[in-house]
Amino acid sequence: DKSQNWILIVTAQTPTNIAVIKYWGKRDETLILPVNDSISVTLDPNHLCTTTTVAVSPSFEKDRMWLNGKEISLSGDRFQSCLREIRSRASDVEDEEKGICIRKQDWDKFHVHIASYNNFPTAAGLASSAAGLACLVFALAKLMNVKEDLGQLSAIARQGSGSACRSLYGGFVKWVMGNDASGSDSIAVQLANETHWDDLVIIIAVVSSRQKETSSTTGMRESVETSPLLHHRAKEVVPKRILQMQEAIQNRDFPSFARLTCTDSNQFHAVCLDTRPPIFYMNDTSHRQVLIINCIEKWNRSEGTPQVAYTFDAGPNAVLIARNRNVATLLLQRLLFYFPPHPDTELNSYVIGDKSI
Ligand code: 2P0
């Protein structure tokens, strides 16, 4: 049957992002609405990113997805929410040459195939849902000719994974928590684009490639339920910090940026420790993390002004942000001194933002 014989394909690429003011805790688990605003920096797309190809064809019998070449289930609520939200906003798609015409109301009758690849080793413990879900939503939106702007798409990506909403923009991005119960105002906004502060060099030190023991979703649920510090943080601390961070980014004020980034990472881990039972994201390799934190704290004090910021997510890997290329070179030298290359060592460095270092 000739009318079955076409396929429409879209490919998109999305980098991951690193929070400098952390998201930790939801007020609505289904819609993924956070208890506080967060701010992140989106990495250079040449480094840690996801590439996703989505296709539609009348010959596809069901929705299917492959991750790094292996088929995975699409039955989860979060995937289904994203697919449903995108489908409901689809527009007409016509391609006269190929004889393709899909009417807006007919998108429900078509199935999609999705193939997603991460360009970084999944085993390195850096696999992040952020890039993946953002890329999926963006590629599907293009395929189905969704007219919504990036902010509205970010509200859909958010329902796939909270931090994913921030990966739709480059540069510095704020995820506004919003007030509305529907989540329509819980969206990402770009604070500054990728050229605004391009002196910064981000180095990710892979301290351990082990999978984390507590998933972020479970961890933050337990923190919301049991940590008094989380509620104090969300209400009293983060709102002020968000304003200060926005100002630091606007003014490219590295000392303030570094102080806020390090303090917020430490408070996020303090919330984890304040959770019952406590969550130790820095536990299994804590001596290395303490070494890295001490090394940077000492260095920053000895220079009289911060040179490097550190931040740790829900895993042991260190994300280090150097104020410029020269500092990044010195930082790599110091990292290599403390963690000399050895077949047994797990420390590798990914240099983001400047391939030549
Ligand atoms: C962040 N993290 O702001 C924080 C800092 C980890 C520590 O966002 O349940 O994978 O899918 O919304 O987005 C990790 O949480 O959790 C995260 P869900 P997500 O980057």
Automatic annotation (TrEMBL):
<dbReference type="GO" id="GO:0005829">
    <property type="term" value="C:cytosol"/>
</dbReference>
<protein>
    <recommendedName>
        <fullName>Diphosphomevalonate decarboxylase</fullName>
        <ecNumber>4.1.1.33</ecNumber>
    </recommendedName>
</protein>
<keyword id="KW-0752">Steroid biosynthesis</keyword>
<keyword id="KW-0443">Lipid metabolism</keyword>
<keyword id="KW-0753">Steroid metabolism</keyword>
<dbReference type="GO" id="GO:0004163">
    <property type="term" value="F:diphosphomevalonate decarboxylase activity"/>
</dbReference>
<keyword id="KW-0756">Sterol biosynthesis</keyword>
<keyword id="KW-1207">Sterol metabolism</keyword>
<feature type="domain" description="Diphosphomevalonate decarboxylase-like N-terminal">
    <location>
        <begin position="15"/>
        <end position="188"/>
    </location>
</feature>
<comment type="function">
    <text>Performs the first committed step in the biosynthesis of isoprene-containing compounds such as sterols and terpenoids.</text>
</comment>
<dbReference type="GO" id="GO:0005524">
    <property type="term" value="F:ATP binding"/>
</dbReference>
<comment type="similarity">
    <text>Belongs to the diphosphomevalonate decarboxylase family.</text>
</comment>
<dbReference type="GO" id="GO:0019287">
    <property type="term" value="P:isopentenyl diphosphate biosynthetic process, mevalonate pathway"/>
</dbReference>
<keyword id="KW-0547">Nucleotide-binding</keyword>
<keyword id="KW-0456">Lyase</keyword>
<keyword id="KW-0067">ATP-binding</keyword>
<feature type="domain" description="Mvd1 C-terminal">
    <location>
        <begin position="202"/>
        <end position="357"/>
    </location>
</feature>
<keyword id="KW-0444">Lipid biosynthesis</keyword>
<dbReference type="GO" id="GO:0016126">
    <property type="term" value="P:sterol biosynthetic process"/>
</dbReference>
